[in-house]
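$ run holo --ligand "adenosine-5'-diphosphate" --emit tokens
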Amino acid sequence: MILVLNCGSSSLKYRLVDCSNPANRRGGTIERIGEPGGEAADHAAALRKAARDLGLDPGDIRAVGHRVVHGGTRFRQPTLIDASVIGAIRELIPLAPLHNPANLTGIEVARELVPNAPHVAVFDTAFHATLPDAAATYALDTDLAKRFGIRRYGFHGTSHRFVSRRTADLLGRPLAELNTIVLHLGNGASAAAVAGGRCVETSMGLSPLEGLVMGTRPGDLDPAIGMHLHREGGLSIDEIDEIYQRRSGLTGLCGDNDLRRVLERRQAGDPAAALAVEVYCHRIRKYIGAYHAVLGRLDAITFTAGVGENADEIRRDCLAGLEPLGIAVDHDRNAGRCPTARIISPDHAKVAVCVVPTDEEYAIAEETAELLFA
Ligand code: ADP
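-- output --
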């Protein structure tokens, strides 16, 4: 069994996964770590609680796979963790101040709890390491960018990799020949253009703020907006950061970050909710056009994560009007929710539109096993 840990700033997701039998798994989530009335006082306590819940016998664990958000330019692959890797993840904290510290705590506590198994870091950024320079480079002063590590790194890579591969399986086509746009639409959201299994464009950049409209993050903005808020509104950098992280996106537009609620409100005639959905879908449509151009030939568009897997209205609305590009959705195939991968475009459509459930914990287990045992 492989133990997978996804340690966030105030939560811990844990899974025991049997890679030879994906159905054989168990686990849970511990929330509000360190908060008053939370489930655990700190990450060490949370991990001990997870171990009790799993009835964990460290002797049964062949390996531990850790989700690590930022791998910078150094980590392009899943990596066996040792002291130098821990040091390097620590050096990357300025690039991921909210995530890497929590990921490190998880690694340190888990190494004490399961000392005899190999621990592997699986990076959210790694799948995007193949971005061509033209896509990865911001048009800023080259020396400044170099000094501060400013480039586009991209995130959700484990999911984009997993989902693009499953799309090839679903379509029965070789991965090496398939050009796909993956739309990972969860609370955080990002798009990736994948050519023959390699990522060539992605919508998140230096941080997970850029790109699509998200639950509480704005996605693309004019860089002048931060300066304007500072100069005209007297807002501090920390206040602007807080606005960008927690008070923008769907929350900023209509006060709700849960798209289910936003869709209900739109249905009830709420104009703020209707505009929020329009902005959300317009942004996705714009990225589809751009990534279609980047890929040249487009074979598939795949929706995944909470919104992408469940919200048929969103899938329909963000592809509306794209028939001239060979992109269309079959109403009946699109309708409703379904736990397995499926094609929702009409037969013989130029572009296959797919829904593929993501499974980040299983994907981390798979990448861990590929590194150690393949
Ligand atoms: P995370 O990014 O936190 O992993 P998920 O991928 O689980 O998030 O997606 C969570 C989001 O999915 C929720 O905020 C909710 O807006 C959305 N969602 C889930 N089910 C539905 C649904 N049936 N219709 C619309 N949105 C949904």
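-- notes --
The chain is about 40% helix and 15% strand.
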